[in-house]
Design goal:
The protein has a three-stranded antiparallel β-sheet, with no helix packed on it. Helix content is 30%, strand content 28%. The model has no long low-confidence stretch (mean pLDDT 96). The longest helix has 9 residues. The chain has 61 residues and is α+β, with helices and mostly antiparallel strands.
């Protein structure tokens, strides 16, 4: 199991639902191109799954 994920926002939030915007904001992303390293836990996995079409996700070891 991974210890962390490196997530990068690659799509705009314009026209997305409020739940998707909230999930992206909780991951710590604000603008296109922002990157964050987030811990691997069930809460973050759920947020990533909810907006996976807008993110680039890499596994950090």
């Amino acid at each position: 199991m991974a210890k962390a994920f490196k997530v990068k926002l690659k799509r705009s939030l314009i026209g997305k639902t409020q739940r998707q915007k909230d999930a992206v904001r909780c991951l710590g992303l604000k603008k296109i191109g922002d990157e964050k390293v987030v811990a691997d836990n069930p809460a973050n996995r759920g947020q990533i799954f909810k907006v996976q079409h807008m993110l680039d996700v890499q596994v950090e070891k």
